[in-house]
Each structure stands twice: as C-alpha cells, then as structure tokens.
Amino acid sequence: MTRDLTGEVAVVTGASSGIGAATARALADEGMSVALAARRAERLESLAADVADGPGEALAVPTDVTDRAAVDALIEGTVDAFGDLDVFVNNAGVMLLQQVADADPDDWETMVDVNLSALMYASKAALPHLRGGGDLVQVSSVAGRTTSETAAGYNATKWGVNGFTDALRKEETGNGVRTTVIEPGAVETELQEHIPDEEVKRRIEGWVESMDALRPEDIAAGVLYAVGQPRHVSVNELMIRPTDQP
Ligand code: NDP
C-alpha cells in the first residue's frame, strides 16, 4: 500500500458480518474513521467497541440500505461525526439462489432491492462527497462476470452492479472519483445461510467446503489494495478467487 489512509473517513455497508466486517476492521486498522452500516445494531456496536482499541475509530449506524432516507441519514451522520467522506463501500448483499422455474419472485425483488437498487442509490448519494478525490468500492462477485444454474436472479443483480459502476466510472472520472468493483469467488461467510431452497443450499455449502475458500480478510485486503493506491492509479476491477475454485 502506498497511500497513508490515516484520518480518512469510510462508510461500509453490510458491516455486521463477513466481508463488510473484515473490511471495516481493515480500514480502521489503517487509522481510518469508519461508519458501520447494517441492520443488526448489536453486531455493529460490538465491532465499533473492538475497533476502539486500535489506531482508527468506528461508529455504529444501524441502517437498512433499501431505505433511502436511512442512507441519506447514514451519509449525513458520517460527515457530521467525522467531518468528511472519502471512501464508500457498497458491500451489503443477499444471495437467494433458486432455479428460475422454482423461484419466488419476492426473493428476486429482495435481491434487486438490496444488491442493486440500494447500491445505485447509495452511490448517487455519496457522490457529492467523493468528488475531488474519493473512492466508491462496490462488492460485486464472480457472479457479476459469469453465470451459473440457480443464480439467474443473483447474476442479474451482480451483472447490474458491474454495468452501473462502469458507466458511473466514465461519468465521474473527470471529477476525481475512483470506482472499484470487487469480484470475490467463494468466501466463508453467512451468505449461504439464507438460501431458501434446502437442496441448493446443501449443494452450495458442500461446494464451498470442497475447497480452501477465501476468508473475509482476503477480500478486505483487496479493498485496501485498491483504496491505498496513489490517487493517479484507479483499480477498476479486482476478481479474487480461491486458488482451487474452478
Ligand atoms: P454476509 O451474509 O456475511 O453479509 C451480508 C451483509 O449484508 C450483512 O452484514 C447484512 O447485515 C447486510 N445486509 C443484508 N441486507 C441488508 C439491508 N437490507 N440493509 C443493510 N444491510 C444489509 O455475506 P458476505 O460477507 O459474504 O456478503 C457481502 C457481499 O459480498 C455481498 O454483496 C455478497 O453478494 C458478496 N459476495 C460474497 C461472496 C461469498 O462467497 N461470501 C462471493 C461473492 C460476493 P444485516 O443482516 O445485519 O443487515
């Protein structure tokens, strides 16, 4: 890492578990002030208390990212508390895998709302603060570049994230905003726990267990790599798979 991040300010959504929690911790370990957003307030409070022992600081801001007013309040609250906003990490996501023929359209709607619509709105809301030298980091997926059976709905949201972000990159590059799409492969987190189809869930859990899956910290290191580059370097896309993931 070549840029000193001490004193910079970040928001991380989905910071109550998995990749978001690890990313928030990694940024705070670099001396950043980090607003932690997700719905499970007690998890955020506990992470904020842990972070307080290190070089950075963290503020728990319970937020449902599908609620636009709550996202506005998250950004305003972050700027009020820490004076600025330099890095916004759109990480909150759900993966409700099902075959199209069996899918519950309400699950599709939930994935579109959380993975795509909320990310689009938060990106727009954060932009005025990021202009002049800020980073927008979108946690997409390998599923944003490839497709697989049972993932059609999830693929649609992550391909949407990639398309939205590359167009936004072209619009904002002249304003000093860097965009990074992070595309993890299999990471050991709670993500699979919510898969509604029991057979699909068992199959995916077995698939993840069959390899030496990534840890959330591996993805956090990718976020740090991108954000830590000198300002003339923009890491637009990072795909990170376990070595033994086909
Ligand atoms: P987790 O299930 O551990 O984390 C998901 C996070 O999203 C939680 O903190 C959850 O918090 C938050 N979240 C879900 N819905 C909302 C909402 N409405 N408002 C606010 N926060 C919400 O999974 P991961 O850490 O794995 O997932 C993080 C991201 O990584 C996702 O975008 C996922 O698609 C992506 N990813 C994960 C991969 C993996 O293998 N694990 C692979 C590729 C991409 P809470 O419930 O407290 O609101």
Verbal overview:
- The chain is α/β, with parallel strands linked by helices and 246 residues long.
- The protein has a single domain (9-240), classed as 3-Layer(aba) Sandwich (Rossmann fold), CATH 3.40.50.720.
- Helix content is 44%, strand content 16%.
- The protein has seven helices and seven strands, in the order βαβαβαβαβαβααβ.
- A seven-stranded parallel β-sheet has the order 3-2-1-4-5-6-7, sandwiched between helices.
- 44% of the residues are buried.
- Bound molecules: NADPH dihydro-nicotinamide-adenine-dinucleotide phosphate.
- NADPH dihydro-nicotinamide-adenine-dinucleotide phosphate binds at residues 13-14, 16-20, 38-40, 63-66, 91-95, 114, 139, 141, 184, 186-187, 189-191.
Determine the mean pLDDT.
97
β-sheet strand percentage: 15-25%
CATH homology-level superfamily: NAD(P)-binding Rossmann-like Domain
Count the beta strands: 7
CATH topology: Rossmann fold
User: Biggest sheet: strands side by side, in what order?
Assistant: 3-2-1-4-5-6-7
> Termini, distance in Å?
29 Å
Which spans have pLDDT < 50 for at least 5 consecutive residues? none
Cα radius of gyration in angstroms: 17 Å
Shape: globular
The percentage helix is 40-55%
Hetero groups in this structure are: NADPH dihydro-nicotinamide-adenine-dinucleotide phosphate
Give the tags.
single chain, 246 residues, alpha/beta, Rossmann fold, seven-stranded parallel beta sheet, 7 helices, 7 strands, binds NADPH dihydro-nicotinamide-adenine-dinucleotide phosphate
